[in-house]
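Q: Structure tokens for this one, please.
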Amino acid sequence: MKFPDAHLTFLEKYKEAGLLFFRVGVGIDFLLLHGWNKLAGGPERWARLGTAMPGFDMEGIYLFWGLMAALTETLGAVLFAFGLLYRPVSALLGITMIVAVIAHVSEGDPWGASSHALKMAVVFFGLMMAGPGKYSLDHKLWKH
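A: Here is the predicted structure, written as tokens:
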């Protein structure tokens, strides 16, 4: 008896294209729907965003952490999409999402409020392990 998806094995030859599709789709989503809005929000938005970083009570630090999150979700999304510095960027994006999960849980938000951040953390860490694929700038520049 054949495995139910045996007739789909021809898709194996598209694995690299699948990684490219996934990388670009997630990168564009993060750039347009997450990062850019935060970065363009300016210092007030960065300070508010920075309050999600637990354990710091100084207002200046909130601004710094918020700016770092906004840059990670903006510049990181672009680098992720292009597959440049892919694994470190994936780690930073994953960590940013874990902080978002912790912030939602700490605020007492319903589980659904943190589920998107948790899913994205899983995506970033999983893709970090899989690598950017051969259709990436990392592969082009460093042939790994």
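A few notes: The mean pLDDT is 91. The two ends are 38 Å apart (CA to CA).
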